[in-house]
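$ ./design --mode recover --in tokens.txt
reading tokens...
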């Protein structure tokens, strides 16, 4: 029998989806399952988005679209960036993709040869390592544990960039931790980036409008405009607008990067669907009341989660200020037992929690931090509070 390509030996299914599928299977068996696993916003976009999609369907041309993305979508994205303070971009600086994950994969294809190094912080979004493995890149990881609030320091970044990675991938606000870098922290990191002109920078900032406590969103280009020539900003409609299934990813950067992604699109996907494009334009250009309201709701949910975790002895959780995740350090449970089963690590913990209490969380080791777990808290408050009560009960039962 013919064999698969060798690169498939490096491709792994999503660890997050594996947890979600297990929870789904238990629920199908009749178990009362509360899922804190998959990172979905759990709301739908405003009616104007659906109206735009219906209108586009009624006027469907049936033709191929632009490999780069429709002008209307590019213009809407540029206006969105202007609102974030990222000014001076034109259509030639932009490109689209089937979600931010597709954008990131194409960027890896465009920027990394086998053996090149990509650097990023730990904890990281699981896909970063998976993509690097598939394209044959080496990874340089910067540990940012709970003790330093899951953020890298300028000294760490300097040490990493001194090793001359081809690419640095920066994520702010962070998945899985929900941490957000302050304006001063961004400025300090930008000063380090400016010292190393041979490293590309991807700023994966798809949660840029989901920030709390008045901290706001800040980008390294705002601090050091000269970094624009090698910085790529990645965005998505999935989280902000409640549109994960619509699959709209966007990027802005140097023209050579945008053109490279456009060329890859011409070979991979051709174009975003016309109806999806119309919905995306409406989301970016239309009323922002739904995402703004949901941001306030997520901030309130964040507080509910932190209050519940603070009542569990030994659990430490840095205060997230964005996205919709918390990432508590639960290592205090390691070495203890629940129902006669020893909990040796985060995977044991999450498995026992799911079996005993019907609560699904993702082990921190999926994100490179085995002392923690990720809670995605976008479910209704009734489910959220009940799930947190069950987590408290699970800890209380440890011996």
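writing sequence...
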């Amino acid at each position: 029998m013919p064999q698969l390509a060798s690169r498939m030996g490096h491709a792994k299914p999503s660890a997050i989806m594996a947890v979600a599928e297990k929870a789904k299977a238990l629920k199908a068996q009749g178990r009362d399952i509360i899922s804190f696993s998959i990172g979905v916003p759990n709301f739908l976009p405003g009616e104007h988005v659906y109206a735009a999609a219906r209108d586009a369907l009624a006027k469907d041309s049936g033709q191929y679209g632009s490999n780069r993305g429709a002008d209307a979508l590019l213009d809407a994205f540029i206006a969105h960036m202007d609102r974030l303070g990222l000014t001076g971009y034109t259509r030639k600086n932009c490109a689209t993709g089937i979600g931010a994950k597709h954008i990131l994969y194409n960027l890896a294809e465009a920027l990394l040869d086998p053996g090149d190094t990509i650097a990023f912080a730990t904890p990281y979004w699981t896909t970063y390592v998976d993509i690097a493995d598939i394209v044959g890149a080496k990874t340089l990881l910067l540990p940012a544990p709970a003790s330093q609030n899951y953020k890298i320091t300028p000294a760490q970044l300097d040490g990493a960039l001194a090793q001359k990675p081809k690419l640095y991938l920066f994520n702010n606000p962070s998945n899985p931790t929900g941490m957000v870098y302050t304006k001063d922290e961004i400025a300090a990191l930008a000063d380090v980036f400016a010292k190393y002109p041979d490293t590309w920078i991807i700023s994966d900032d798809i949660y840029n409008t989901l920030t709390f406590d008045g901290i706001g969103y800040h980008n390294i280009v705002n601090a050091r405009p000269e970094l624009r020539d090698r910085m790529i900003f990645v965005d998505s409609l999935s989280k902000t607008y409640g549109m994960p299934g619509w699959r709209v990813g966007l990027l802005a950067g140097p023209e050579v990067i945008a053109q490279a992604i456009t060329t890859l699109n011409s070979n991979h996907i051709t174009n975003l669907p016309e109806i999806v494009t119309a919905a995306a334009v409406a989301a970016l250009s239309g009323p922002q009341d739904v995402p703004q309201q949901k941001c306030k709701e997520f901030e309130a949910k964040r507080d509910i989660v932190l209050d519940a975790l603070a009542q569990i002895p030994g659990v430490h959780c840095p205060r997230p200020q964005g996205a919709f995740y918390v990432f508590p350090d639960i290592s205090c449970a390691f070495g203890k037992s629940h129902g006669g089963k020893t909990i040796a690590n985060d995977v044991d913990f999450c498995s026992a929690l799911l079996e005993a209490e019907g609560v699904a969380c993702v082990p921190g080791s999926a994100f490179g931090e085995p002392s923690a777990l990720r809670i995605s808290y976008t479910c209704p408050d009734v489910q959220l509070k009940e799930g947190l009560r069950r987590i408290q009960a699970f800890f209380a039962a440890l011996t």
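exit 0
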